[in-house]
Amino acid sequence: MSARRKLKSVHRTDRLTRSLRALERTASTSRVLNLLAIQAQSGHRPEHGEAPLFRNRILNSALVVKHRLRADDLFLFDEIRPNATKIIIPFERSDLGLGGQSFFVGQRGWVDLLREACNEQSDMARDLAALRMIDQLPSLDPFLLREHLRRHGLLVAPCYFALSGGDLEQMQSFVSVQISRLIDLAYRDTGRVVAGAHAARLVEALLSTDVDERLEPLRETLVMDGESFKEGVFSWKGFLYYKWMLTRLWPELDVVGGEIGRLVVTGNRDIETSRYVDDARKRLRHGIVAERRAVMRSLDVYDRAFEDLIDNGRPQAFREFLLRAPDMFLSLGEKVGIIAHIASFWRYRFPAGQPLVADIDEAVDILQDFDAGLNVSLAI
Q1: What is the pLDDT of residues 326-349, one digit of tens each?
Q2: How confident is the model at residue 134 (pLDDT cuts 50, 70, 90)?
Q3: Which residue from 54, 100, 184, 263 has the fewest beta carbons nearer than 10 Å?
Q4: What are the sequence ranges of the domains in the chain?
Q5: For the chain, how far is it from start to end, CA to CA, in angstroms?
């Protein structure tokens, strides 16, 4: 079979990408990396072309999606895996509703599919290496992605690590509460009262890709030079992003943990399979609790450094914390990505209020997916 026939067309009937317009508009940062949107927003900047994520221009305007494999996807791979990284090349950049071509990183013949979709015959070693690095990650969260690439010697422009519009909108109020005390500290000596609209602009500036003059009072408070401040702001956004995600995840995980224990498994099974189901349920409940504690320990380091700054006026300690914080993103981002996948897929498969029933084959498949995730470690 030719590579062309293997290349999968993505149309509106595809359950994941039935509307690329909706995917572009509302998708979570950790699930979708929209390179087309990044190109539209930052393509005019020198950094976009000087330090691209991918050198091939077609690939560098694709959509990268973390995707849970369905039954009709599994035959594409030589090994059994629950998740994969899907690359979607839009047919028409100006109208995503027309669909596109797609393939999975790691499926049989994927390199040939990539070359055909990207109209590339020359060496693609660097782009292939970048795709393999991305495929190793449990999510596309920009803080985890940036540090993982950097650890492997791949330096990419900051514009590629922006938060999605949907996440930014939802994070605004959460971040406002988190940093209101620091804003008060930054303006305390000036005698100025920061109005709500001005504070909102500071929050917007903190969450944006650029670090501009709106953040100058905060830079002065932290006694940081320009480049160090940019790095520090990136780390700061990372911790605020994780804290925001977890305020939504913890209640859902509590519910999911209980539902895993109540799942009714139907169908015939042997003793070994029954034992695996029972043991996996217990491991998952304990594993979710253990991951939660590990995440909270990491975030507690941030909280203590921030409180030290606010309560004791020690900018140096907080500044040093921010500059060494990216070292924590690999472990923290991995754990958050895994538990987010457990919560989101479980709720997708078992909507609230619907019966908690699955046949034995599907139950084993789901439990093995979650089980493997909680025991996986990044290759650093």
Answers
A1: 888 888 888 888 888 888 889 888
A2: very high
A3: 184
A4: 3-160, 163-222, 224-375
A5: 37
pLDDT digits (tens, 9 = 90+) for 61-109: 999 988 877 777 888 888 877 788 999 988 666 555 556 788 999 999 9
Q: What is the CA radius of gyration of the chain?
A: 22
Distance CA 65, CA 30 (A): 9
Angstrom distance (rounded) from CA 188 to CA 210:
25
Q: For tokens 């209020």, name the residue.
A: 353
Selected residue with higher pLDDT from 267 and 378: 267
* Phi, psi (rounded to 5 degrees) for 204: -60, -40
Tokens 């979710």 -> residue: 288
Q: How far apart are CA 200 and CA 215, in angstroms?
A: 12
Q: Which of 302, 272, 334, 319 is nearest to 148 (CA)?
A: 334
C-alpha 73/C-alpha 65 separation (Å) is: 15
Q: Please report the pLDDT score of residue 16 as a whole number.
A: 40
Give a three-class secondary structure readout of the chain: CCHHHHCEEECCCCCCCCCHHHHHHHCCCCCEEEHHHHHHHHCCCHHHHHCCCCCCCCHHHCEEEEEECCCCCHHHCCCCCCEEEEEEEECCCCCHHHCEEEEECCCCCHHHHHHHHHCCCCCCHHHHHHHHHHHCCCCCCHHHHHHHHHHCCCCCCHHHHCCCHHHHHHHHHHHHHHHHHHHHHHHHCCCCCCCHHHHHHHHHHHHCCCCCHHHHHHHHHHCCCHHHHHHHHHHHHHHHHHHHHHHHHHHHHHHHHHHHHHCEEECCCCHHHHHHHHHHHHHHHHHHHHHHHHHHHHHHHHHHHHHHHHHHCCHHHHHHHHHHCHHHHHHHHHHHHHHHHHHHHHHHHCCCCCCCEEEHHHHHHHHHHHHHHHHCCCCC
pLDDT at 17: 44
